[in-house]
Amino acid sequence: MDTNQTPSPALTQPAPAATAKAPIAPAWHTLLLIAFIAVLSIEGAREMSGPNAAAIDSNRLVTYATTIGSELLMLAWVWFGLRLRKVPFLSLFGDLSGGIKTFFLDLGIAAAFWVGAMMVLVISAAIWLVTDSVIHHRPLIPKGGKSAPVDPAQQHLVHTLTALAPSNAREIAAWALVCIMAGLIEELIFRGYLLRQFTAWSRGLVVGGVLLSSLVFGAAHGYQGARNMVLLTIFGSLFALLAVFRRNLRAGMFAHAWHDFIIGLLLSLLKWKHLI
């Protein structure tokens, strides 16, 4: 055997995001990260409640900057944890080999995935609505032509998301930056670090990593209320499965970034048309 032979590319690629068999950071490091995410979620829910939402509506750029700052802080913490175990930070991205061909392949997969994921979300929301109506003995379609009663929780959610939506060119540019950073950083944290760490804690069982990382992802969105936290847990599990399927985070980053951007622009348009 020739010991000077160059290793094959397959042997030199970073480890896929969801196939780690050993923890990539100390347990205390992960628990502190989860605690920080919980604090941000609770604080976000508090800031978006009552009169606080009006303050955000009038100062979105500060909210955008604060969001980016908190995510960069979490990313730095993840980098520190990996360094403690001498795990390369770039390994979180997974296998990005293949050049421009696989780049566009991931772009196409992201588009198809996003359409499918939105369909799953719509179906999940419909199931939630039907279940809630059955539990509370409310008809889905009111009789006698009366309008359906307004759900206070959903009314609050719409008000919250509308407060975050950009309203001018400068805010749209800032919102685009927020979405790009969210797509990059949140995928690295939830589908890179946490998915890989929880998979290792589950003794290599990928389903354990998918479920636990998705639960943390859903819980991170406390400002959107209980219903959307459940829906986002489902959404997060789809992104985790995509990372497992593609063995990298690139497609998920694409889909995550443009999902947030499109939703923000849609809310901005509806607000401009005075439809919400």
Description of the structure:
The chain is mostly helical and 276 residues long. 72% of the residues lie in helices and 0% in strands. It has ten helices and no strands. The protein has helices at 9-12, 27-47, 52-57, 60-84, 99-135, 152-164, 169-201, 206-219, 225-246, 250-272. Helix 5 (99-135) runs antiparallel to helix 9 (225-246).
Layout: helices, strands, pairs:
Blueprint: H1 9-12, H2 27-47, H3 52-57, H4 60-84, H5 99-135, H6 152-164, H7 169-201, H8 206-219, H9 225-246, H10 250-272
Helix pairs in contact: 2-4, 4-7, 5-9, 5-10, 7-8, 7-9, 7-10, 8-9, 9-10
> How is the main sheet built?
none
Tally the helices: what do you get?
10
Measured as a percent range, the helix fraction is over 70%
Estimate the global geometry from the Cα principal axes: globular
Q: Pairing-aware structural class of the strands and helices?
A: mainly alpha
Average predicted confidence as pLDDT = 86
Instruction: Please tell me how large the radius of gyration is.
Output: 21 Å
How far apart the termini lie comes to 71 Å
Low-confidence stretches: 1-19
For the secondary structure, the number of strands is 0
Strand content: under 5%
The helix-strand sequence is: HHHHHHHHHH
In short, what is this structure?
With 276 residues, the chain is mostly helical. The protein has ten helices and no strands. α4 packs parallel to α7, α8 runs antiparallel to α9 and α9 (225-246) packs antiparallel against α10 (250-272).
